[in-house]
Amino acid sequence: MKDAFGLPQSLLVLGGTSEIALATARRLIARRTRVVWLAGRPSPALEAAAADLRALGAEVRTVAFDALDPASHEAALGKVFAEGDIDLVLLAFGILGDQAHDEREPLNAVRVAQTNYTGAVSSGLVAARALQDQGHGSLVVLSSVAGERARRANFIYGSSKAGLDAFAQGLGDALLGTGVHVMVVRPGFVRSRMTAGREEAPLATTPGAVAAAIELGLRRRSETVWVPGTLRVVMSAVRHLPRAVFRRLPM
Amino acid sequence: MSADTVSVTGWGRTAPTAARLVRPRTYEEAAAAVRACGARGGIPRGLGRAYGDAAQNAGGAVLDMTGLDRVHAVDAAGGTVLCDAGVSLHRLMEVLLPLGWFVPVTPGTRYVTVGGAIGADIHGKNHHVSGSFARHVLALELLTADGEVRTVLPGTPLFDATAGGMGLTGVILTATVRLQPVETSLMSVDTERARDLDDLLARLTAGDHRHRYSVAWIDLLARGAATGRAVLTRGDHAPLDALPARRRTRPLEFRTARLPAAPARFPEGLLTRTTVGLFNTVWYHKAPRAETGRLRPIPAFFHPLDGVPDWNRVYGRGGFVQYQFVVGHGREEALRRIVRRIAEHRCPSFLAVLKRFGEGDAGWLSFPVPGWTLALDIPANLPGLGPLLDGLDEEVAEAGGRVYLAKDSRLRPELLAAMYPRLDEFRALRAELDPRGVFVSDLSRRLAL
Fold first, then answer.
1. Is A82 on the interface with B (CB under 8 A)?
2. C-alpha–C-alpha distance, residues A132 and B312, integer Å
3. Is there a catalytic annotation at residue A117?
4. Which one of the listed residues A157, A167, A189, A226 is annotated catalytic?
5. What angle do CA A122, B7, B164 make, to 5 degrees?
């Protein structure tokens, strides 16, 4: 069960090698979390992540999960929920793709969309149903500021996150009153493996900062969390810029 | 019998979870509800005054017992009452005071049910004299997991598991309670100020035995030399001859007044260190330095907050946490350290009370043990509150003390066994009595009770 501060005792990470997710898991293990499930494609990296968290004192298990195989989601997540309540599901998988390359390789672009959007639709619905059955829990969805308004430089990724974001908001509204809390997290540019070698955007942040914002959002039962928080104001301005101006922004 | 899926919280309004709220109106309906609980079980709930998650059951059933609210029999000569578990102490006072009887124990609110009073084994300002509520229970009827009703008598393991058992042994249906005789419905109250914590402890130690009721409001925002300054309030039921002539014609009159309820959407963030600090300073200085024999009505002495319905809303959407612990006599150093840490963290608490407990009772998970108990309320969104309270838990456990489950919403489960040494017996009895785990609450899940 979550405590008065929204801190979970059990955590399921979808996308078990995500740096943001692991930073969040480390933070939560230091507080109340004792049981962690890392769901992802079986790999040495997934096992290494599990071992790292185990060293912090949590009981950590891995489970095979592939965002690109929606038909398997029911079984994969069902196995986890059958073992006991999950207080927090962190939907953290996602790929950035390579915009310039993907524009010429539509199948690659579709892969980005299927991972980030349809994979999340499927696993998000499965997780939401399980949380609803247990009458409590939070579903934290890692969206992105890129989904707020698609940019020329990464609109394939951006549009997939826009879809994910809209889906998660709607899901949150659908689950109102069911005891399940859905929180959409919109980080800006996060310095991580995923963005390594890319030019940093303004207001860049770190996985640790996103983890801290998630902990705070859980305590406040927030519906939307921006990281850093100033992005809320910045993006509300950006959202209303005329297209012609937005297009010319150096970002 | 109606049943709706609703979002449920405790009085602190933190950690909402959804449950099927069932309102049985007869014992048969209650038994049917228990039999129909399903995989996620059920838990009885009274008036929802437990601060944390004791009367919540995510995904399962919550049995709202307030529909079972009949007072069956009052023995006005012998001083006992037989009533349903859903009867509130407020109702009992309305019925009993005109007959010259008072409830044996009342907490800071009248709006708790008899079932809840036993389930949490509540205490009041008279703990040093009268112990906790279950000490005054002569018998109770318990609906157990098999759907059967058992009569449970004091001195039996099932009674001791049920007193303070947070509703996890079964649903209390009725109770027979021994009452306190009173000549009037007024309290004779002595008030004095204590300039710091040591002064307070000394005054409580020296004077408690002279009064049936004793409690101290403590200013936890005061620092330095004033750390732990307090206002002691002690009282006794006023004898008839203490009343002024015009009141002597209606000595047992019980009247309660309630202000309009706090608005549902109270603005967030009014209770800050500044506003609460100001309140506390005024409250301390406006209390008389020393006053004796002032006559006060029962609600004003015992239940001032009941005058504002839904006062818990003043903490806004974020809700609040109640922290109550007890440490034994001889552990004053731990108490001082804890008070200092709270004061240094600047917790904006305006409802902090310190009390000296008397002998504990037999309930396995009953909270009171002889010593000092401090209760305080803190807005849940205060930065750093979680780690602060975790630190205090360590101090409390180290000093052989414990925290109160009826108020808890955040204890680290690992500390529970150290705080409640009879936890294993409780678990064993539950495993035998309720092998399918019919009775379960968010609290029992969180702490693995």
1. no
2. 27
3. no
4. A157
5. 120
Task: Please tell me the pTM assigned to this model.
Answer: 0.96
User: Smallest Cα–Cα separation from A184: which of A201, A206, A166?
Assistant: A166
Q: Does B190 lie in the same domain as B176?
A: no
Q: Is B6 part of any domain?
A: no
Kindly list the residues from chain B whose CB atom is less than 8 angstroms away from the CB atom of residue A180: 18
Residue B75 pLDDT greater than 90, yes or no:
yes
- b/e A145-170 (16+ beta carbons within 10 angstroms → b): bbbbbbbeebbbbbbbbbbbbebbbe
Domains and CATH numbers, chain A: 10-248 (3.40.50.720)
Q: CA of A150 to nearest chain B CA: how many angstroms apart? A: 34
User: Are B375 and B329 in a shared domain?
Assistant: yes
Are the beta carbons of A177 and B18 separated by less than 8 Å?
A: yes
Q: What is the DSSP letter of A251?
A: -
Q: Does B370 fall in a domain?
A: yes
CB-based contact, B385 to chain A, within 8 Å: yes
Q: For residue B113, what pLDDT is reported? A: 98
| Local structure of B63: helix, strand or coil | strand
Task: Kindly tell me if the per-residue pLDDT of B238 is higher than 80.
Answer: yes
B83 CB-near residues (< 8 Å, 6+ apart)? B70, B71, B72, B92, B114, B174, B175, B177
Best mean pLDDT range from B91-95, B259-263, B282-286: B91-95
**Partners of residue B412 in chain A, C-beta under 8 Å:** 32
H helices of B306-384, in order, are 332-345
Residue B2: pLDDT over 80 = no
| Pairwise CB contact (< 8 Å): A179 & B409 | no
Which residue type, as a one-letter code, is found at position B261? Answer: A
Contact B17/A135, CB-based, under 8 Å? yes
Q: State whether residue A224 sits within 8 Å of chain B by CB.
A: no
Same domain, yes or no: B283 and B299: yes
Check B319 against A180: CB less than 8 A apart: no
| Phi and psi based region of residue B259 (left: phi greater than 0; alpha: psi -120 to 50; beta: remaining) | beta
Tokens in use for B244? 């002024």
Contact flag B14-A5 (C-beta cutoff 8 Å): yes
Q: Is B97 on the interface with A (CB under 8 A)?
A: no
CATH of the domain at B406: 3.40.462
Residues of A in contact with B6 (CB under 8 A): 177
Structure tokens at A236: 């509300």
Same structural domain, B160 and B257: no
The tally of domains found in chain B comes to: 2
Q: What is the DSSP string of B119-182?
A: HTT---TTHHHH--GGGGEEEEEEE-TTS-EEEE-TTSHHHHHHTTSTT-S-EEEEEEEE-EE-
B13 touches chain A (CB under 8 A): no
Q: C-alpha angle with apex B379: B377 to B382, nearest 5 degrees?
A: 125
Residue B195 included in any domain? yes
Do B177 and B192 fall into the same domain? Answer: no
Out of B52, B59, B318, name the one closest to residue A135 (CB): B59
